[in-house]
Request: fold
Amino acid sequence: MMKMQSEMGEAAALSTMEVARRLGLAVRSVQLMVDRGELLAWKTPGGHRRISHASVKAWEFKRDSGLEEAPASAASPGDAGPDGLSAKASAARPGPAPQRVLLIEDSVHYQRLMSLLLQDAFADVELHVASDGITGLTMYGQLQPDVLIVDILLPGIDGPTLISTLRSQPQFAHTRIIVVTSLDQDERLPYAHALVGVPVVHKPRLAADLPALLAQALAGADRARGG
Reply:
């Protein structure tokens, strides 16, 4: 059965200086950590760098515990997120690891619709769900999914800004993107810079268009990872 994970996470963001003070590091060291993808960050419209609070906590966890990787989720098995979706962590199983899809969508209705579409056609795929851009950015760093499905209009960080931010991260090279939106073509024009070469699904056509595009994206991600 398809695995689903929903996570709301902390939406707080910190400045580079605040992170440096918190971690006891130089500002330049924090900047290098962002460049290496160890901390997830983005820039405000005014050009100020903001760092995900959750990614700082994950880094602290790894440092303090001595583990190589922090847990992909703080949710306990059987927990349920505020949107009602299951927050059950993925169980370990023999054989190749399942492919992961991260859905960043603030509408509970469309979260459920897309989860049903995926469950019907891609039963072996792990689906993880975030309800805002900042949480989604943090979850991306934890999961490094094969496919990212992202809405354009999101709380915190809009989809195109999130895509542009992730494209600057080395670990993003193997991920395939699908954008879903209720905006028509004219309404998408302000975001065109981030949508070049990215398949866009109009939400009224989700059931018709998403499964085929997702199959192509999963196959492309598998090839990119050498599968």
Summary: The radius of gyration is 17 Å. Residues 206-224 form the longest helix (19 residues). Residues 143 and 196 are 24 Å apart (CA to CA). The longest strand covers residues 176-181.
